[in-house]
Design goal:
heterodimer; A: alpha+beta; MetI-like fold; six-stranded antiparallel sheet; extended; B: mainly alpha; 1% strand
C-alpha cells in the first residue's frame, strides 16, 4: 500500500509516447472544437454587420444616457436668469418646477434693486398692430413697409416704468461650485478653477483667459456649456444663463406642489394630522393627506399600485385556471394512463399548439376580444400555460412508479379510485410545485405582455419611458416590480421546498 | 374481514389514541377547507377586480371571445400564401392591406427574400446573438457564484445578487432605455434579451457547477493548479454538456422573448404582427402567425433533439 512509485521524467515521456491517444485528443475532436469556435466567431462577426452594431453604437447619444440614468434617482431644478442689455436681470423657474409655484430656494442669492427706467415696449405689440396697416397699404413691398413703420412706432413706444430688477445673482451648487452673475459678467467656479465670461445681453459670450476642462464652447462667442458633473450643469448664452442644479432623491414623492402639505417637514405634517386645524372643513386632515398622496399628480401612486395589482392578478388567475384545465387533460395525454395512441397524440399536439402560438400572440388577439385590460392578459396566460403545464404534467404522469397503481388495482378498486389513490399522491406535489413555479415566472411575463395592451403595469411603464422625462417614475415602478417578484419568488420557493423536499429547484 | 373478532370496547389507552387520531384528521380537514376557502376568495376577488378594471366587461365581451378567428378569415386561401411570399394580390387596391410585393428585399435583380421571412430571420438572429452574448457572460460569472469554487462569501453573494437583479429587471425597461439612447432598431432588443439571459443562465450554470464532481478539482489542486486551471480543466469539461443544454433551452425562450420585445419597439417580426393585427389585415396576420408558429416549433424540436443527445432525459426536468 505505502510503496511509492517514483517515475523518472524520461520514463514518463516514454509512457506518453507509447499511448499518445491518452494525452492528445483525437483529430476529429480537435477539428470539431475548432469548427464550433470558428463558427461562433464567424456568426458574431456576421451579426455585427447584420445589425450594423458598430455604426449604431457610434451614433448613439451617450451623453444623454448619463442624464437619463441620473434622472432615475435625482431631479433637476432649473432657474433661468435672463440678462437684459442694461445689465439688469430677471429670474424664472421651469413650468411645474418641483419647488412649487413661487420658489425661493436658499441656494439662489438675489440682490434686488428698484429702478425707474425707460423701457422699449417689446416688438410683439407693434407687430400685432401692423398687419392691418400694411394690408390696406400695399401688397407689393411688404418688407420695406415693415422696416419703415417699425422704427417709427418703436420710437414712439418707449415708456418709463418703475420695477424691481436683479442686479446680482449667486447660484451655489455645492461647496466648490458656484456661479455669480453681476454687471454683465458671469463668474463660474468649480473645483478650484474660476472662469469669467463677459455677456453682452444679446448673443455673445466672451470668456476671459483659457477655458478649464469643464467648460466647452463650440465657436468663439457662442453659448458656453459648463458641466459640473453629478451636481448639475449650466448653459451661458449672451442674454441668458440656464442653471440646472441636480438634487439627489425623488422630488415631491408624497405630496405634489398643489397639496396643502407641500413643502412641510414630516414633523409638521404629523402634527397637522394629529392636532392641526382642519384644512378642508369637509374632512379630517388624515384623509386629506392620504387622498393627496394617492392622487399625487407626479407619481400617481394609486394608479401605479392598481396596475401592479392587475399584473399580479393576471399571473395568479391565469396560472390557476391553466393548471385546473391542464389537470384533467394531462391524464388523456399520458400514454400509461390512457392507452389510446390517437387520444395521446391529439391532446399532446393540442398542448404544443397552445404553447407555440405563444403568450404574446394570444395577448394581441385577446386584447381585441376584451379590450385592453387584465382580462386579455389572463386569457393569454391561461392559453399558453395550459399548453406548457399540460405538457409538463403529462410527462410527470408518464414517469410515475407503477407499483402503487398496481397495488390499488389488485384489490379491485374502480378506475377512478385507482387514479385517486394510486397515481395522484405521487404526482400532486410535482403538479403543485410546477404551478407555483409558473405563477412566479408569469408575474414577470405579465409585465411584458402588458406593454402590448394586455393590462397591468407594462403599459404604464412603457408610456413613462416614451416621454423620456419621467425616468424617476420608471425607477419607482421597477422598484415595485422587483419587490413583488422577490416576494413571490420567496413564497413560491418556500412552498415548493415544503412540497418537494430540499431538491426542488 | 374478521371484524367480529375485534373488541367492541376500547381500553383507555386505545380510546386516547383514537381520540387523538380523530382530532388530527379533523384538524387536517379544517386546514384543507380553510385553504380552499382562501383560494376561492382570492380567486373571486381577483376575477372581480380584473373584470372591473378591464376596458370591456367579461360577460359583455364573451360572445366576442372568438371574434379573432373571424377577423383572421382571408378572402381566399391563397391570400396567405401570397402574403407570406410577397406575391402580388388580385385584390390590390393601393392600400396597405394587399401591398405584399412592397416589402421584398432584393438580393440580386431576380431573387428576393420575402419581407416576413426577412423579419423572422432578424428576430431569430436577435435571439441567437443575444443568447450567445448572455451565455458567454453567464459562463464567466457562474464560477464566481458557485459555493464549491468561490469560498469567499462576499464575492459569491455580490455576484449572485447581481444575477438576481439582472434576471428580475423587466426586459421592457432595458429595451425602452436603450431605445431612448440608440435609434429604433434591433439593438435595444438585443441588449434587453442578453441582459436577462445573463441573469437567468448564470443561476442555472452555478447550480450545475455546485452539483459537479469535485474529484478532478482536488486532483488539480493537489498538483498545484491555480484557480483558472482548476476551473478550466477540472470543472468545464464536466459541466459543458449541461451548459450547452441550458443554452439551447434559453434559445427557445429567447426566440419568444425577442418577438415580444420587437412588438414594443425593437423591430423584427413582432412589430409587424402587432401592426397587422391592429389594422385588421387578415392574410398578413395569418401569414405571420403561421411563420412564427413554424419557427418556434422548429426551434423547440431542434433544441429538444440536440439536448436529448447531449445530456439524455435529464434535460427535460423542470428548469427555466
Amino acid at each position: 500500500m505505502t510503496t511509492t512509485t517514483r517515475l523518472s521524467p524520461m520514463e514518463m515521456d516514454a509512457i506518453a509516447a507509447r499511448h499518445p491517444e491518452l494525452l492528445k485528443s483525437s483529430t476529429s475532436k480537435r477539428v470539431r472544437t475548432a469548427t464550433i469556435a470558428g463558427g461562433i466567431v464567424a456568426y458574431l462577426i456576421f451579426s455585427w454587420w447584420f445589425f450594423s452594431i458598430g455604426q449604431v453604437l457610434g451614433n448613439a447619444n451617450w451623453g444623454i444616457a448619463g442624464t437619463y440614468l441620473a434622472d432615475w434617482v435625482s431631479y433637476e431644478v432649473r432657474p433661468e436668469i435672463h440678462i437684459a442689455s442694461d445689465r439688469t436681470m430677471s429670474l424664472n423657474y421651469q413650468r411645474n418646477s418641483p419647488l412649487g409655484p413661487n420658489p425661493d430656494p436658499d441656494w439662489v442669492e438675489l440682490d434686488k434693486e428698484t429702478v425707474t427706467r425707460r423701457v422699449e415696449i417689446p416688438a410683439l405689440t407693434t407687430q400685432a398692430a401692423r398687419p392691418r396697416a400694411s394690408s390696406s397699404f400695399s401688397f407689393m413691398a411688404p418688407g420695406s413697409a415693415l422696416g419703415g413703420t417699425t422704427t417709427a412706432e418703436a420710437q414712439n413706444r418707449v415708456e418709463t416704468r418703475t420695477e424691481e430688477v436683479l442686479t446680482r445673482v449667486v447660484v451655489t451648487y455645492d461647496r466648490s461650485t458656484r456661479i455669480e452673475i453681476a454687471d454683465s459678467l458671469v463668474k463660474a467656479t468649480h473645483g478650484g478653477e474660476t472662469l469669467v465670461m463677459a455677456v453682452d445681453g444679446a448673443d455673445r459670450v466672451m470668456p476671459q483667459g483659457t477655458l478649464p476642462t469643464w467648460a466647452t464652447q463650440k465657436r468663439p462667442g457662442e453659448k458656453m456649456v459648463l458641466a459640473f458633473g453629478a451636481t448639475g450643469w449650466a448653459e451661458v448664452e449672451g442674454d441668458e444663463v440656464s442653471v440646472r442644479n441636480r438634487f439627489f432623491g425623488w422630488a415631491n414623492f408624497l405630496f405634489d406642489t398643489n397639496s396643502p402639505f407641500f413643502g412641510k417637514s414630516y414633523g409638521e405634517v404629523a402634527s397637522l394630522i394629529i392636532s392641526g386645524k382642519r384644512i378642508d372643513p369637509a374632512r379630517s386632515n388624515l384623509s386629506l393627506a392620504w387622498n393627496n398622496i394617492l392622487y399625487n399628480a407626479e407619481w400617481q401612486h394609486l394608479d401605479v399600485w392598481t396596475k401592479l395589482l392587475q399584473t399580479v392578478v393576471m399571473a395568479f388567475v391565469g396560472t390557476l385556471f391553466a393548471s385546473l384545465i391542464a389537470f384533467p387533460l394531462c391524464f388523456l395525454a399520458a400514454r400509461n394512463i390512457t392507452p389510446s395512441f390517437m387520444t395521446n397524440q391529439l391532446v399532446k399536439r393540442f398542448f404544443d399548439f397552445l404553447r407555440s402560438v405563444d403568450m404574446f400572440i394570444w395577448a394581441l388577439f385577446f386584447t381585441r376580444a376584451f379590450g385592453p385590460g387584465p382580462l386579455a392578459g389572463i386569457s393569454a396566460i391561461f392559453f399558453t400555460d395550459t399548453g406548457t403545464l399540460g405538457k409538463l404534467y403529462s410527462e410527470a404522469l408518464e414517469n410515475i412508479d407503477d407499483k402503487q397503481r398496481e397495488g390499488v388495482k389488485s384489490v379491485g378498486a374502480a378506475p377512478l379510485a385507482v387514479q385517486r389513490f394510486g397515481v395522484l399522491p405521487q404526482v400532486l406535489p410535482v403538479f403543485a410545485s410546477q404551478a407555483l413555479y409558473f405563477w412566479e415566472s408569469n408575474t414577470r411575463s405579465a409585465t411584458i405582455i402588458g406593454a402590448v395592451g394586455a393590462g397591468g403595469i407594462g403599459l404604464k411603464l412603457w408610456e413613462a419611458m416614451r416621454t423620456n422625462s419621467d425616468w424617476e417614475n420608471v425607477a419607482y415602478m421597477v422598484l415595485l416590480i422587483l419587490l413583488v417578484v422577490f416576494i413571490f419568488d420567496s413564497i413560491s420557493n418556500a412552498c415548493r421546498s415544503r412540497l418537494m423536499g430540499r431538491r426542488a429547484h | 374481514m374478521a371484524t367480529s373478532l375485534l373488541p367492541r370496547n376500547l381500553s383507555d389507552n386505545g380510546a386516547v389514541i383514537e381520540r387523538h387520531w380523530q382530532e388530527l384528521s379533523s384538524r387536517r380537514r379544517l386546514y384543507s377547507w380553510l385553504g380552499f376557502g382562501i383560494l376561492f376568495l382570492a380567486l373571486s376577488g381577483s376575477l372581480w377586480f380584473a373584470n372591473d378594471s378591464n376596458a370591456g366587461k367579461f360577460f359583455d365581451r364573451l360572445p366576442h371571445f372568438f371574434d379573432f378567428v373571424g377577423d383572421l378569415a382571408p378572402r381566399d386561401g391563397l391570400e396567405i400564401f401570397r402574403a407570406m411570399f410577397d406575391l402580388p394580390s388580385p385584390y390590390d387596391d393601393g392600400s396597405f392591406k394587399y401591398n405584399y410585393p412592397d416589402g421584398r428585399l432584393y438580393l440580386t435583380d431576380g431573387f428576393y427574400i420575402p419581407e416576413y421571412v426577412h423579419k423572422m430571420l432578424e428576430t431569430v438572429n436577435i435571439a441567437i446573438f443575444s443568447t450567445i452574448i448572455g451565455t458567454a457572460l453567464g459562463f464567466v460569472l457562474c464560477f464566481f457564484a458557485a459555493r464549491n469554487l468561490m469560498p469567499n462569501p462576499w464575492i459569491r453573494g455580490t455576484v449572485r445578487r447581481i444575477m438576481e437583479i439582472l434576471r428580475a429587471f423587466p426586459e421592457v425597461v432595458i429595451a425602452g432605455f436603450f431605445l431612448a439612447i440608440l435609434s429604433l432598431g434591433p439593438i435595444p432588443a438585443i441588449a434587453a434579451v442578453s441582459i436577462h439571459t445573463v441573469g437567468a443562465l448564470g443561476k442555472l450554470f452555478y447550480e450545475v457547477v455546485e452539483n459537479a464532481d469535485m474529484k478532478p478539482d482536488e486532483g488539480l489542486r493537489a498538483a498545484g493548479g491555480n484557480w483558472i486551471e482548476r476551473v478550466w480543466f477540472g470543472m468545464v469539461p464536466q459541466v459543458l454538456p449541461n451548459f450547452t443544454s441550458y443554452f439551447l433551452l434559453r434559445l427557445e425562450i429567447n426566440v419568444r422573448a425577442s418577438t415580444i420585445i420587437g412588438a414594443v419597439g425593437g423591430g423584427g417580426i413582432g412589430e409587424l404582427l402587432r401592426l397587422s393585427i391592429g389594422q385588421g389585415h387578415q392574410a398578413k396576420t395569418l401569414a405571420i402567425v403561421i411563420l412564427l408558429f413554424a419557427t418556434i416549433f422548429a426551434v423547440d424540436q431542434f433544441s429538444a433533439w440536440l439536448r436529448r443527445r447531449l445530456v439524455g432525459e435529464q434535460a427535460f426536468q423542470l428548469a427555466q
